[in-house]
Amino acid sequence: MISQFFVLSKRGDNIVFRDYRGEVQKGSAEIFFRKVKFWKDDGQEEAPPVFNVDGVNYFHVKVAGLLFVATTRINISPSFVLELLQRIARVIKDYLGVLSEDSLRKNFVLVYELLDEVIDFGYVQTTSTEVLKSYVFNEPIVVDAARLSPLGPATIFAQGAKRMPGTAVTKSVVATDPGGKRREEIFVDIIEKISITFSSSGYILTSEIDGTIQMKSYLSGNPEIRLALNDDLTIGGGQGPTYGYNSSTGSGAVVLDDCNFHESVRLDSFDMDKTLTLIPPDGEFPVMNYRMTQEFRSPFRINALIEEAGTHKAEVILKIYAEFASGVTANTIKVQMPLPTHTTRVSFELESGAVGQTTDFKEANKRLEWGLKKITGGSEHTLRAKLTFSQESRGNITKESGPVSMTFTIPMYNASRLQVKYLQIAKKYGTQEPYRWVRYVTQANSYVARV
Question: In this model, does residue 153 exceed pLDDT 60?
Fold first, then answer.
């Protein structure tokens, strides 16, 4: 049970606000944003997803640069509320096509109608886009998706020989196209978030993949879909039941520790030919979630070295090796490294011919930042940073530095080697076949290298 729900812009502007129970004082949105913006407790830079101020519990998630927030005074499961906020954001995106401040402001009547159907007096009723279609009657006002950022969801997968239309995946699932025609298409995204910890010498200590097969269907008539995965796929390595599925025996080239499936998925022939059968509901939904801890090839290798260069000086050398194929390009790479607390100045030296790279020293929290716009497979990049200290270093500067963390996005690449062999639509479409888009992306969940 929640008391309030609201959405704030990155500036703190209140875009959507609904008070369901009247138990929390007015001005809670301002209190929340002020607390999040100036969060300094325990030396953290960002506020945790759940915190308490004057007896009010605040829960928040950040989606597409917007803050989705819920408040309550009672003791409630944090994971339940955070999942609810994610689902509300997904439902709104299903209806509006584009989730942004502009689309929310233009469609505030529709958004409030959705919120009144999703939550009643603080209690959740439904978060299913398909169910909500029977109760929500306002039509969305289409927002021009061309104004999305270049690395937004509409363009992040537009690589390779076959490119999809830039605005294809940003359409509403309920609105019809101009002229009453509807483009028949279906999107399947294999999204993997990898977590890797490297030793100081560059060896992998821990590695894990959290993956999701997501589907978004614009097909009319709710046809049956058959989604075929790798023939050599094994779930659980033959060690018994997993989360939602009993594993097959044997060992394959792609071994997942466990997985679970959407309620619409039928597994009648999964053991035999690794095929999932389903009738996709409206909106975006996860067909399959999976986890993998078997050894896999890391897309990047990081090496960090820090050496003393005098009584008040030291030098840091960071090297990044792209271990994927040369035809693949990683985007929006960001490297961070905490430095000794008595660091006062940092001068940077980039490799010759470096393009699209930025460096910064955050003096407030003594952190080095290195940004790279893109990295092509097989390349190597180096950063040198000369540190100046306010006092002579009396401890071990290596222990006072690091670890190095890295974030990135790699379109059309997946570390687990899980593949969609084919996507079959049972319905007959005459002369025009529906468009099928199968896309892959790998992101860093936790990518850390010890110094």
Answer: no
Who contacts 161 (Cβ-Cβ below 8 Å, separation ≥6)?
A: none
Helices 108-118 and 78-96 pack at an angle, to 10 degrees, of 140
**Tokens of residue 89, six digits:** 């954001």
Helix extents (H) in 98-199: 101-106, 108-118, 129-132
- For residues 403 and 371, the answer to whether their CB atoms sit within 8 Å is no
Digit-coded pLDDT (tens) for 64-82: 889 999 999 999 999 999 9
Enumerate the β-bridge partners of residue 383.
318, 350
Strand ranges in 154-264 using DSSP code E only, listed in sequence order: 185-198, 204-217, 225-229, 233-235, 254-256, 258-261
| Cβ atoms of residues 382 and 318 within 8 Å | yes
The whole-chain average pLDDT of the chain stands at: 84
CATH number of 4-132: 3.30.450.60
Domain ranges of the chain: 4-132, 184-296+413-449, 300-411
Domains 184-296+413-449 and 300-411 share a fold: yes
* Per-residue pLDDT at 172: 75
CA-closest candidate to residue 335, choices 198, 190, 141? 198
User: Is the confidence at residue 149, as pLDDT, over 60?
Assistant: no
In the prediction, which pLDDT does 169 show? 56
* Contact yes or no for 17/24 (Cβ under 8 A): no
Q: Taking Cα atoms as reference points, which of 379, 400, 386 lies closest to residue 319?
A: 379
Query: Is 300-411 CATH 3.30.1490.20?
Result: no
Q: Residue 293 carries which side chain, given as an amino acid letter?
A: T
Q: What is the pLDDT of residues 89-134, one digit of tens each?
A: 999 998 998 889 999 999 999 999 999 999 999 899 999 888 888 8
Residue 28's contacts (CB-CB under 8 Å, 6 or more residues apart) are 4, 6, 56, 58, 71
d(CA 245, CA 236): 9
User: 184-296+413-449 — its CATH code?
Assistant: 2.60.40.1170
State both tokens at 181. Answer: 């025609």
Residue 377 to residue 362: CA distance in whole angstroms: 29
Q: How many C-beta atoms surround the C-beta of residue 276 within 10 A? A: 23
DSSP, residue by residue, 26-55: TTHHHHHHHHHHT--GGG-SS--SEEEETT
What does the block give as tokens for 177?
């196209």
Pairing state of beta strands 50-53 and 56-63? Answer: antiparallel
Return the bridge partners of 58, or none: 51, 71
